[in-house]
Design brief:
single chain; alpha+beta; Jelly Rolls; 7-stranded mixed sheet; 49% helix
Length: 694
């Protein structure tokens, strides 16, 4: 593909100045590998980690918002390779990773830094071979250092941003190859550009503005439309693990497009005009290097437009066409990000184009002043590089402060955990979700965004992963809600709530949800609260409370006509599912297969709003796709199903529990209960228990 214009690697080795191409990648590598990051940062690292486990185990992904699929595939490859090479590891991949997740996140981060450092070196070498100017290569290599935001993300995140830095570098190499090609009409260029664009879009939608660059550069409408159409199969290939989630992906991006708030929230509409204008100003202020060099590029085009026939200049100087294409992409990117602007990393694709914009501007001036001031023109690239390098040094204080922030965050986490173990040994540890920095919250975040395929392993490895979810004001064992009485009965009344320091508004919301807290420690990123069970409405009167009534069915007894299960005169449907293949108590259980998916239907009479029930059953199999269900028999009425199991016995039977309060808008006065197997596999149920608690 690439013509090297008779400059060989041997000549490069003989030219000492080219050794300079190693310096910036080496700096990037050394400082990147020694930079710190926040341990257990769930968003987004753990979403990619757990989806990496999914792909490594040939399952579909659960996170498509970016879409981010190449990052998930990268995660899967790293996990598979690391697990294969760790000959001391006895556990299978899923449990090995989940047992020590942050070490794998750190491994993925460091490998990403190494890959980008190598890509920076390749970009320098290839651009030198194409352009025969060491200063141009150094300008391209210096681009990442112009943005502290870009560098911080490259050094600290396992996310789409480091992959986008790599992708834009590949994109620039393709642009240089096209620029130096003697046959720009070659049919391969639309396909090459389309492959890179498809990969970029699969990584993150913020790459979208860069799609315009090849469309402007390619000659002839046939090649332009070939390029656009070829992006579609490229995108499909690079998002293959996410194909089952395409409907969700489409809904997500439609929401982003048709609402004025972040993440598809806010009012319906394209933009909020006042906020949009304010965000444009904020982007300019917060991204000085991008704004200044973008403005300089616009001036280059403006003065070209003023002097001579503009269209003719574009035809005579393809460098001007490149400048226009890059500027259009950067401006479109800024306009797109301003719609939902709240973070600068969304501009990383546009920031990554700064260097190539400068290079083509210098190439354009070189062509314009070919016959004048030749010596001056030769010195300009070096001066420009010096200015860019000096500008990049201004980011050092911010990066030092950021690195120190990560260090003290981790130190505080360690100190808080040690304090809890030393001073509160008899307390149950629960975690304030979703705003917490700890392994439990990070793993739950990843589990939620990976279709919960890893939930059974998490329950096995972390049977005390208990959270207080402030969004619903309830305690949960992973995804299963735990009522306050069961929390006290199973774990005692001494409870800690651990997580991020709550603002007065957040704490008031928790109080309104029925939980009173005593602050034991309030720090920078960690806080410890003791749950005041005496003064918490959620715990009022539960210590001595007993169910109003309770009964169960263990599937061992049938009616004389063998049409129902029966226990103490109460009947349960679907007796034909009775099986002696497995039983937790007695001899029989209920067997549900992929064909017979419902059983144990039972009706509770005289149901009224405000009543509370606890329904449980013990199951074996199903991988959290087998449920206890309660609903109103009335069409369009109440429906609720269990989330996961709360405990597991020594025989491997899992207790599935459904706690519910009859809502005020409940239809009718009957509550239907049943078991449902949605796993496609064989599941056994036993010891179905129903209790009214209020």
């Amino acid at each position: 593909m690439f013509q090297l214009y008779n400059i060989t690697s041997e000549k490069m080795k003989k030219n000492p100045v080219t050794l300079a191409l190693i310096i910036l990648p080496a700096i990037f590598l050394v400082f990147g590998l020694t930079f710190h990051r926040t341990w257990f940062s769930g968003d987004p690292e753990y979403a990619y980690l757990l989806n990496g486990i999914n792909i490594a185990n040939l399952k579909s992904v659960g996170h498509t918002d970016n879409p981010g699929t190449p990052v998930q595939v990268y995660s899967a490859v790293v996990l598979r390779c690391a697990h294969f090479l760790d000959f001391s590891e006895k556990a299978e991949l899923q449990k090995a990773v989940l047992a020590n997740p942050d070490s794998y996140v750190e491994l993925e981060r460091k490998i990403s830094i190494i890959i980008n450092a190598i890509m920076m070196l390749i970009l320098g070498i290839v651009s030198f071979l194409f352009l025969k100017n060491i200063w141009f290569s150094l300008i391209l290599q210096a681009t990442p250092f112009l943005s502290s935001n870009l560098i911080e993300h490259a050094f600290t995140k396992v996310s789409p941003e480091p992959v986008l830095i790599f992708t834009v570098a590949v994109f620039i190499i393709a642009m240089l190859a096209y620029y130096r090609s003697k046959d720009r009409n070659n049919r391969r260029y639309p396909w090459i550009f389309a492959a890179i664009a498809g990969f970029g879009l699969a990584t993150k939608a913020t790459f979208l503005p860069l799609v315009i660059i090849p469309f402007i550069l390619l000659e002839g409408w046939k090649r332009k439309f070939t390029y656009l159409l070829a992006i579609i199969p490229a995108f499909v290939i690079f998002t293959a693990p996410a194909i089952p989630e395409y409907p969700h992906m489409a809904k997500w991006f439609l929401g982003l497009s048709t609402h004025t708030g972040t993440y598809g929230q806010g009012n319906a509409g394209i933009i909020d005009p006042l906020k949009y204008i304010a965000d444009l100003g904020a982007i300019i202020v917060n991204n000085a290097a991008l704004a200044i060099l973008l403005f300089c590029g616009i001036l280059v085009v403006f003065f070209s437009f003023l002097h001579g026939e503009f269209r003719k200049k574009i035809e005579e100087h393809i460098e001007l066409k490149f400048i226009i294409a890059i500027l259009v992409a950067q401006l479109l990117g800024i306009l797109m990000v301003a719609k939902h602007y709240h973070a600068n990393h969304y501009l990383i694709p546009e920031i990554s184009l700064i260097g190539i914009l400068v290079v083509f501007s210098l190439l354009y001036f070189k062509e314009i002043f070919r016959d004048r001031n030749a010596r001056w023109a030769k010195s300009v690239p070096g001066v420009v590089f010096g200015v860019l390098l000096a500008g990049s040094l201004l980011n050092i204080p911010y990066l030092q402060a950021a690195d120190h922030g990560y260090v003290i965050t981790n130190e505080e986490y360690s100190a808080v955990m040690q304090r809890i173990d030393k001073e509160y040994p008899g307390y149950l540890k629960t975690y304030y979700y979703p705003v917490s920095i700890n392994p439990f919250s990070a793993l739950r975040w990843g589990s939620v965004y990976s279709r919960q395929y890893n939930l059974p392993a998490l329950l096995s490895l972390y049977p005390k992963g208990i959270f207080y979810d402030t969004r619903i004001n309830a305690f949960q064992l992973w995804e299963g809600e735990i009522p306050a009485d069961e929390l006290v009965r199973n774990y005692g009344g001494k409870i800690l709530l651990i997580g991020g320091p709550m603002s007065p508004e957040e704490k008031q919301k928790v109080l309104a949800g029925g939980l009173s807290l005593k602050t034991l420690y309030f720090g920078r990123t960690q806080a410890i609260y003791e749950v005041d069970t005496v003064n918490s409405a959620l715990f009022q009167g539960i210590v001595s409370s007993k169910p109003l009534w309770t009964y169960e069915c263990n599937a061992d007894t049938l009616t004389p006509d063998k049409t129902f299960f029966v226990e103490n005169g109460r009947t349960w449907k679907n007796s034909w599912n009775e099986s002696a293949d497995a039983a937790r108590s007695g001899t029989w259980s209920v067997k549900l297969t992929g064909e017979n998916i419902y059983a144990m239907e039972h009706m509770i009479d005289s149901v009224a709003p405000g009543q509370q029930y606890r329904i449980s059953a013990w199951r074996k199999g199903g991988n959290n796709k087998a449920f206890v269900v309660a609903c109103s028999p009335e069409k369009g009425g109440f429906y609720k199903q269990s989330a996961n199991y709360l405990s597991i016995d020594e025989k491997g039977w899992e207790q599935v529990v459904l706690n519910l309060t009859i809502p005020v808008d409940f239809k009718g006065n009957k509550l239907k209960l049943y078991l449902w197997n949605d796993s496609g596999n064989t599941v056994y149920y036993d010891d179905f228990t129903v209790a009214r608690t209020k």
